[in-house]
Amino acid sequence: MRRHLIPRILIVGAALVGLLVPSGSTGTVAQKASPSGKTLAGIAPEEYRQRRERLMELVPEGIVLLSGKTEEEENEVEQKFRQRSYFMYLTGVEVPGAILALIPKGYGPERVREVLFLPSRNPARERWTGPKVGPEEAVPEFGVERALPTTAFESELPKMLEHTKVVYTVIPSGPSARFSREQAFLERFRQGVEVRDVRPLLAELRRIKSPAELALLREAVRITAEAHREVARALRPGMFEYELEALVMATFLKNGARRAGFPPIIGSGPNSTILHYQANRRQIAAGDLVVVDIGAEYEYYTADITRTYPASGRFTERQRQIYALVLGAQKAAEAAFRPGQTTMRELQEVARRFMRESPLRSRDGQTLDRFFIHGLGHYVGLDVHDVGDYSKPLVPGVVITIEPGIYLPEEQIGVRIEDMYLVTETGLVKLSANIPSAPEEVERWMARRAAR
């Protein structure tokens, strides 16, 4: 998956859960039910506290103010809530309308260093939407030092700014920035203070994954592997792309992934050459290649794994040649990697050089690196395109994708192979190694469909 996309839930996939996957979740990450009915998986309140402490160490001269996401409605229907990733990273709070304040030097008589502002409980509303954690329950629930109603934010703000005029927050960017919720939040306190962007600091903290984060990512990979297995067994000419999308989403949901990390990309035939194809409505024909770029999001951590399948069960000679070249480029990048030394940009050049030196050509005689039209990979974590500096060497604890691709519209051949890797002290660990990628392995995997 080559760019950050807004997650969506495919309703038909949820409807097919009982039809497509055996009952009973197969999740492996230990879960703990909270008093509010919310589920916390894998990451303890103490780890969130440590993250906040590390951030405060980076901003000793200022304070941090962050707003969580608010509830959204569309056509007067409430949408499924997903907390902003940076807010989730620091708090684990999945409550709409929250605000976090971090004051490294403390404020008030008790020198409070962290305050979580939450909307007060609304029993009448909760009869419709279910219980939500309020400020009264937040301290034991989330391990924060103090919790107050969001209505108290305006009165507490001058006290927090008494000894500093530097505020770190998310400064929105882009053409719609001035209309964003982040901008509206910023306007509440920017008068008379120096505002600095906290995102670079958070990006560096989020770049290296903790053992708890890695456990969630491994589970997201496992669920995504199950979905690829179902696709390989079900795929036949005559199916529609959306049928495979439904199968993917059903498998995600049945295995405990509440949503996809990004809209599934199911591109067949000519659509296999469209990098971010999302319509998923074409009928798959015999002889097509089908690019399946999917990722389950498990407890906010997403996988991102792509395979390219021959709709008829076997690659044509030309398809196999292109596929082998793409796979070879991925392996060349793997072999060139050195922990603590190699950057993503260097791996990109390795893959391009491998394609450029191949004797294979396009119909008009061009080297095939000309048809590798995107970056080689990206960080993965709370976001499918997770945050981090691509110019820095990749160090232990970083999780990346390596995803070379070649797209030949004139031949209706698009091939992308994407896997996830953990950087360790000794090299790369392929987290998605149990999903076949060699062409003969893919064909054997698909051959099992005849037995269904």
> Which CATH architecture of the largest domain is right?
Alpha-Beta Complex
The first-level CATH class of the largest domain is given as: Alpha Beta
CATH topology category name of the largest domain: Creatine Amidinohydrolase
- The best one-word shape is elongated
Oligomer: single chain
* Rg, Å, rounded: 24 Å
Structural class: alpha+beta
**Major beta sheet, strand line-up:** 8-7-6-3-9-10
Q: What is the assigned CATH homologous superfamily of the largest domain?
A: Creatinase/methionine aminopeptidase superfamily
Q: Treating each run of at least 4 consecutive H or I residues as one helix, how many helices?
A: 14
Please give the alpha-carbon distance between the first and last residues: 30 Å
SS elements, strand count: 21
> How confident overall, as mean pLDDT?
89
